[in-house]
Write a structure and sequence with these properties.
The chain is 39% helix and 20% strand. The chain is α+β, with helices and mostly antiparallel strands. It has three domains: 178 residues, Alpha-Beta Plaits (2-Layer Sandwich), CATH 3.30.70; 66 residues, Orthogonal Bundle (DNA polymerase, domain 1); 155 residues, 2-Layer Sandwich (Dna Ligase, domain 1), CATH 3.30.1490.100. A five-stranded mixed beta sheet has the order 5-6-1-7-8. Strands 9-12-10-11 form a four-stranded antiparallel beta sheet, with helices on one face. Strands 3-2-4 form a three-stranded mixed beta sheet. Helix 3 packs across helix 4, helix 9 packs across helix 10 and helix 12 runs antiparallel to helix 13. The C terminus is likely disordered.
Length: 428
């Protein structure tokens, strides 16, 4: 017996952060100029979201505040990440009224895939009517507009959302493999398609390939030569195929080989101030490694300077030991930071990366005091247990009170942005 033809929804909240801010103010995002931006970060602060009305005036999403024409008046909404998470949780609860969680994949805070195959018969409805019902319920309960893609696999549902739904009056798009080839094979630009970035486009153009039909009909040996194993995904998507199911996604467990952190500083920092933040990031990295039970023997840093200042600097350094202990790692980072960083140009961005391996690879030099190593491990483990139980600011280091330190404030952030309000102040 042939497998049942599956059907998926891909539902996205339209300009989610901006729509939430409009909902909180009782405003219509299609009639309001509003940008979610932390203007305390300066005129070049990145807008996390803008309303559809601003997009209709030619302003690009995730623009910088300085790129918005001066003749356009708009509301500046400070990011409130906890609020957006709460809205997303409420929307997820709406889905749970109709679907088993095993059939839902939360792709991002504002976008979810749902396998609706077995639910259309259960609710005696068709896919389009069902999508409209969900979208209307989200709009009624949370005042958030949404769009939906319907597809016979996950990829087609995503493309129906990203491309087809934009040209539909009801904001719903539908694709199966044949309709995909008929309507989108020659669609341009090719970067409109999921997972095709500008770098991929440039490589394709070198070989005269500028749409999905060209990819589908290109010699497979050429595609594998140019893209390696990634050619398989490219070819499948060119034909509108996607074998992956939601259950496959849920069964996948990533094996990351690095621990990394980055941040944009709230203002221009001096060398000494930036060094304090870099050491805070080392400490965070050590704690994250302890949580994941991994260790490192190589550290890399990145330093970005004020806009128009100079090219970024940084580098990596192989350590003589393999560990997750702050006291052992920090000398290597200090030396690397001292050697590579411009001490005269204001600093605005920092990043750090640890290449990691399993704890079983731990190793030290001949001069290591192993009793002290064990004592430090116990201290840091106790630190983590307190922080996990009572909050990240329940226990802090002297480092966190030095000039330029950002960790105390960032401990209240979500995803690098201000939470916006305490859980106790949430509006119903």
């Amino acid at each position: 017996m042939a497998d049942k033809q599956r059907l998926y929804f891909c539902i996205d909240m339209k300009t989610f952060y901006a729509s939430v801010e409009c909902a909180e103010r009782g405003l219509n995002p299609f009639e309001t100029n509003l940008a979610v931006v932390d203007e305390t970060r300066g005129k070049n602060a990145l807008c996390l979201a803008i309303t559809p009305k601003m997009k209709a005036q030619g302003i690009k999403n995730r623009c910088r505040m300085s790129e918005i024409p001066k003749n356009i008046d708009f509301i500046r909404a400070l990011p409130r990440m906890q609020l957006y998470i709460d809205y997303a949780a409420d929307i997820y609860e709406i889905y749970l009224n109709y679907f088993d969680p095993q059939d839902i994949h939360v792709y991002s805070i504002d976008e979810s895939f749902i396998d609706v195959t077995d639910y259309l018969g259960l609710y005696n409805t068709d896919a389009v009517s069902f999508a409209k019902k969900l979208m209307n319920e989200i709009a009624y309960k949370k005042r958030i507009p949404s769009t939906a893609g319907i597809g016979t696999n996950l990829y087609l549902a995503k493309i129906a959302l990203d491309i087809t739904a934009k040209h539909s009056k009801d904001h719903i798009g539908y694709l199966d493999e044949e309709l995909y080839k008929k309507t989108l094979w020659t669609h341009k630009p090719i970067t409109d398609f999921w997972q095709i970035a500008s770098g991929t486009e440039r490589r394709l153009v070198r070989y005269g390939i500028n749409d999905m039909e060209h990819i589908a009909k290109a010699p497979t040996d050429l595609l594998y030569k140019v893209f390696g194993v990634n050619a398989e995904l490219l070819i499948d998507h060119a034909w509108g195929r996607e074998p992956c199911l939601i259950k496959d996604i849920k069964n996948y467990h990533s094996k990351s080989h690095s621990v990394s952190f980055s941040q944009v500083l709230p203002k221009d920092y001096t060398y000494e101030e930036a060094k304090v933040v870099m050491l805070e990031m080392v400490l965070n990295g050590c704690h994250e490694m302890m949580r994941r039970k991994v260790i490192t023997n190589r550290v890399g840093i990145y330093v970005g300077y004020t806009y128009g200042g100079r090219e970024s600097t940084g580098g990596s350094k192989k350590m003589l030991i393999t560990t997750s202990l702050y006291s052992k790692i920090v000398p290597y980072v200090e030396e690397l930071f001292e050697r590579t960083t411009d001490k005269t140009t204001p600093i605005r961005r920092l990043g750090i990366d640890f290449s990691v391996c399993d704890e079983g690879c731990e190793g030290y030099d001949l001069f290591t005091d192993f009793e002290e190593v064990e004592r430090e491990k116990k201290r840091e483990q106790a630190f983590l247990e307190i922080a996990d139980k009572y909050g990240k600011n329940a226990i802090l280091r002297g480092l966190n009170y030095m000039d330029g330190a950002t960790q105390r404030e960032r401990n209240t952030f979500i995803g690098g942005h201000r939470a916006g309000y305490d859980d106790t102040t949430r509006k119903s």
